[in-house]
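Shift notes (night). Ran Energy-coupling factor ABC transporter ATP-binding protein while the centrifuge was going.
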Amino acid sequence: MTIKITTQHLSMRFKERVLFHIPELSIGPNDAIYLKGDNGVGKTTLLKILAGLMNPSSGKINTPNKNWLQRLSLCTGHKDVIYLHQTPYLFDGTVFQNVSYGIRFQQQSNIEKRAQVITALRMVGLETLADEHISVLSGGEKQRVAMARAWIIKPSILLMDEPSASLDQESIQRLVIMAKDLIERGSSLVITSHQANALTQLCRKQWWIKDSTLVESPLLQVIPDIEQEKHYVNTRTN
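Came back to this:
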């Protein structure tokens, strides 16, 4: 299922400081958005608000209604919306247990669930580490586990907060494989990053938090830093 999130007059303030005021925005279905902005402008805060993990100071967020089980359990967060933290939160257990957590209540046999988990781990190149404790993994490998756990749920909207920070090229490419698969399934992605890379190049829209609001800027600016440097050198020498 693909969903759409819309907001009206979304504001966030801390004491006297207005972090941002966004008249309106919409995500989905099947969007791929690169969210840019300087440090401290509120990118992470905006993602957490959209995921239902924080409440805005004012404004309205329109999302699909929670089902009866979520209402009874007082679950936070929006249905079918996953927030992927820059520093992944992982459980004290094996790699397999972490990835399988999201599908533990699905109406499938254990064999089918195991097949899904192994497929996810194979996509991120960690199938041989399925039985290892999460503590033995590197930072990049932990981020891949977090991505596999998000992918296996097949979210309608995946909010990725600096997913490529401090990752090597192999880890970034593994995340790209899963991100492409989700887009092909009709999911929407919002990706924050301080540098353009293979993940941000998947995006078809670019948002910029600037001067305490959100603006959409041309996709022509979403190019790798090395290309920006070439353009700058050519401009200086011509």
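Residues 66-76, 221-238 have pLDDT under 50 and may be disordered. The radius of gyration is 19 Å.
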